[in-house]
C-alpha cells in the first residue's frame, strides 16, 4: 500500500528513535524536563513568540489557544472549511463556550472585509468580541499557503475590531519552506500559534502552542486542567528537537514529490490542477471525472493507493511525506490513473 491519506502516516526514523532513546528527561509538570524545555524554547523562537508549551496534539494546542484568547459566549471566526471548523468545534463549544461564525473563504483564505462582515453580523449594538483563527497551510484547500501580507491584514482587521488572533500553523513550516519565508513572518503577528510535530515533521507525538510569556503561563494552567500536563515527556519531545534540526528543509522534497505526482496525474488524464500545488498535497476533482469522492477513494485502495476525502465529499486528497519518495510517486501515478479511468 502507498499511504497518501495524510502526512501523519510517517513512522519515526531510526535516527529519530535513537534521539528519543537517548533523551535527557525530568518531571515536565515541575518544569524539570530539559528536553521539553529545549523544544519549547526552539519553537517559540521559530514562531516569533516569547514562549511555547508542549501539548499532546494540534487539536489540544488550538483548543487551549481559543479558550485562552476568548471568553464564553464570544465569537470564534474562521474559514468554514478549516480544520478547526470541520473537526474541532465540539471542543471550542464545550470547553471554551465559543459561538462559531464560519467565513466562506477562497482557497482557504479570506479577506479583512470578510472578517469585518462576520464580526458585525452578531448584533447591531454589541461590540464584536472573540477570536479569529486562520489555517496555514490550509489542508482542505490542498495545502495552500496564506500570503504573509493577507495574513497580516487580517490580523490588523482583528485588532481594529477588538478581536484576538490565532494561527493554526499545524503545517506552518511547509508554508515557510515553500515560500522561503521565516515562519515568524506569520507567527509573530498572532496572539497564539499552533505548530504540529506529527505532520510533515514526521514525529510520533505532539504539538506546540506559542504566544507571549503571560499567555503561555495561562495556557499551561489550562493544559493541566485538560489533563495534558506530562511527566518524563523528554522521550517524545526529543523527536521534536530532532525534527526541527533534520526535517525542516527536507519538506521541500515533499513539495517536489507532490508536484511530480500532480504533473504525472494530469499527464495521465486525471482531473488535477498542478498549478494549485503549493506544498505537499494534491487534490483530485473526483466529480470532474464523474465519481463521488468516496467511490474514487475505494477504487484507489483496490489498486494499492490510500487517499483521504476533502470536506466537500467531491475532492480526493493525496499527501506526500517523509515515507514517500519519487519511486512511490511513480508507482502511484499509473495505479491512480487506472483506478479512476476503469469502468
Ligand atoms: C490544519 C490542521 N490543524 C489541526 C489538526 C489537528 O492535529 P492533531 O491530529 O495533532 O490533533 C490537523 C490534523 O490533521 C490539521 O490538518
Shape: globular
The helix/strand series, from N terminus to C terminus, equals: EHHEHEHHEHEHEHHEEHHHEHEEEH
The name CATH uses for the topology of the largest domain is: Aspartate Aminotransferase, domain 2
* Cα Rg: 20 Å
Q: Look at the structure and give the CATH class of the largest domain.
A: Alpha Beta
Helix count?
14
CATH architecture of the largest domain: 3-Layer(aba) Sandwich
Q: What gap, in angstroms, lies between the N and C termini?
A: 22 Å
Q: Report the structural category.
A: alpha/beta
Q: Can you list the ligands bound to this structure?
A: pyridoxal-5'-phosphate
Largest sheet: 7 strands, mixed
Task: Please tell me about this protein's structure.
- The protein has 343 residues and is of the alpha/beta class.
- It folds into two domains: 14-246, Type I PLP-dependent aspartate aminotransferase-like (Major domain) (Aspartate Aminotransferase, domain 2); 250-341, Alpha-Beta Complex (Aspartate Aminotransferase, domain 1), CATH 3.90.1150.
- 43% of the residues lie in helices and 15% in strands.
- Strands 2-8-7-6-5-3-4 form a seven-stranded mixed beta sheet, with helices on both faces.
- The longest helix has 17 residues, at 251-267.
- The radius of gyration is 20 Å and the shape is globular.
- The protein starts with a strand and ends with a helix.
- Bound molecules: pyridoxal-5'-phosphate.
